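Subject: complex prediction, re-run

Hi both,

The earlier run crashed halfway through, so I resubmitted it with identical inputs.
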Amino acid sequence: MVEVVNLTKRYGDTLAVDGVTFQAREGEILGFLGKNGAGKTTTMRMMTGFMTPTSGTVRVNGHDIREESVEARRQIGYLPETAPIYDDMSVQGYLAFCARLRGVSNRELPERMDRAMRAVNIHERRTWIISKLSKGLRRRVGLAQSLIHNPKVLILDEPTEGLDPEQIIEIRNLIRGLRGDHTVILSTHILPEAQMLADRIVIIHEGRIVAVDTTENLTAAVQRAQRLRVQVDGPAEAVRKKLESVAGVQRVETLDSDRGVRFIVESARDTDIREKMALAVVNAGWGLLELERLEPTLEDVFLHLTRRNQVDARPAEPVLVAAAASEGDEA
Amino acid sequence: MRPIFTIADREFRSLVTAPLGYVVMTFFLFVSGIFFIAPLQANIANIRYVVGNTTIWLVFLLPALTMRLLAEEKKTGTIELLMTSPVTETQVVIGKYLGVLAYYALMLFSTAQFVFVLGMVRKSDANPIFPTYTGLVLLAATLVTLTFAALQESRTLSIITGLLGAATLVCTGFAAVQMGEWGPALSGYLGLFLLGAVFLAIGVLASGLTKNQIIAWVSTAAVLLLLTVLISWLTRDIPATAPALAASPNPGDYASFAIDWMKFAFLHILQALSLQATLENFAQGVLDLRDLVLYASLIGASLFFAVRGLTTSRSA
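This time it finished cleanly. Structure:
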């Protein structure tokens, strides 16, 4: 169990992390979601004791990371963002080093190493020198070292970043398998990843927590509307009118386009209007260039949250709307 | 204690198996070999020349062993895993220091070959098989098994290495007795080891203060050069007695007296820090408590500040 209380980190004049408070319960997977630069890595570095917070604290199973640093760190397995590893060591040499450093006894060592290497499926390459491993294999070695001492708490900073799709699936399955035995805190900037893996999601934006909720609630909130992207070769206003007239369409938004006109069309969540839309466009004699269903993105979550919060009239939020809207195309 | 040993073990192992360690060791043996052969050709068979002349090369060689210790970890980010493991900064610094110190001891150990050769040269009726040839073979065997032990992480091989090393040392003892004057030779070696221990501690500090290995190397070498050669050059002819004021001084005399006095004090402080002078004592077989105190303070201060540097890097 991890408690983060009012954690703040200031670099000169910039507040990188501003009063972050949340808890990770025992045995759950907590998704720590935010864009690049939102303060995820800084927060995780403070949670693992690598950085001292400007104020606030972190308690890992009741041990304060500042007061009882060594004891708190003993409870943690950590995979930093870049998965740094000593290149000149062999896989087993490196894992043995990590295990001894974290207090695994010589008697337990062979079994723990074997278990960690099997968990990440690297035991066939145990004698390889790490510099010869591919990026995905290195990441697995990184995960193995975080598991080697069987820690209660696992902190994984963007564990799938920079891997190819197959490796991503592998790593995700592995993390899913950790639920129950370990408390896992996992950072990511990919919304579907958090939705797939996490029991609960904490969303951080510009150093502040903007939402803490179960994955189901957040997903449901975002997916109330279904969004389609449509590109049509035809006169903008006429096409727009036509699209709005299709049954089930709730809202049409015009976008810029190099050829023809592009729209974002929103409809109710449980109806599929794609066929009707295609028919409408084609029957009018225009060319249908593109028709795609959009998955909700992190930006949608931000937009949704900020809209909701505006209704609540919270003072800090208008800034967030502007920021989220201006970066809306980067998803 | 265990984290210290674990970290030291890793550093030592990586030096034994990585190119950097080989380059430094090769160059060290090459240079010390020259200082061994050259006097021998002039019919002077004495280990003292090796000890005395190798120092200046250590100024450049030993920083190469220490430069990567912390700087490389900071550059590649591996320091993040080290500092989030349940170990203290002190354990990290001491572990790394002991790792390179052990490697330096290995470097000195491999110069035992000179003792074997000298034992035979100095005593014409000596049996060449023991200790000389036996010792040389044992020495080579120790180094070879050590490399394999480090590569394969095998406990059995480590024990064999230890036994071979101990046997080599026993042979070295016999050869040293044959060689004669083994007392000064031993204290010379001890001095060389302690001097290296100081050099390495300063190197650890420099490596802890930067991410850049080149900067760590250059700055360590510069400080060591200052502590050895430059100080003895600066203090080559300082007066032994403090400057005195003339009996009936002119007003201008006060100023020059003050300057003389400050110069005198400064040079004496510098002289007290000179490592060259201490090494001359060691080479003559003199173990001076003041020298040991100087060494211990330099090592202690360097490692202390290296620990402080690591601690403050957490809040940066």
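Chain B has 14 helices and no strands.

- K.
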